[in-house]
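--- STAGE predict ---
source: upstream dedup step, 1 unique chain passed
mode: sequence only
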Amino acid sequence: MLTVRHTVAAGMLSIAVISCDRQKSAAADSSVAVQTSIQSEIDRSLEATRRKDINTFIDGFVPDFEIITPEGSRITRDTLRTNTLRDWSIIPATRDLWMRIDSLGPVGGDTAVVYTAQRWDRLMLQRDGITRDTVVTTQKHRELWRMTAGNWRRAEVKELGGTVEVNGKPYTQ
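--- STAGE serialize ---
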């Protein structure tokens, strides 16, 4: 026989379950919105690379940004800018360039962890400034993104490994 106590308890349990489902749904919606926003910023960065627009490219990184290489060395935003301009000066053409989000790690407040995969197929000049090589690189990243001034920006990138091919052959440094 159901008592008032049982009926109230069942009702409260139903409310708790519905509330948890709504919280999970809201969190999932929030993660989708974060991923969509970050992918949009990644796409903006890729377009800046294609156009060799250094100001738009660098704008996608917070001032205290760092890249951590597989060897453990650190590259600052200023060094990234210098290296990018140097590299772009010997890249007459980008044939294909993409980066996708493979997964989203923890998202909280103004930070998000993002795992990405990238592929860049480009023509690069040799030292003679005339001969061109086809260079294709792939790279996986663990990226820390930070919301600043209403936009997501990269705060840290850890390179997880990738490949380099020159003229269709594996290249090792």
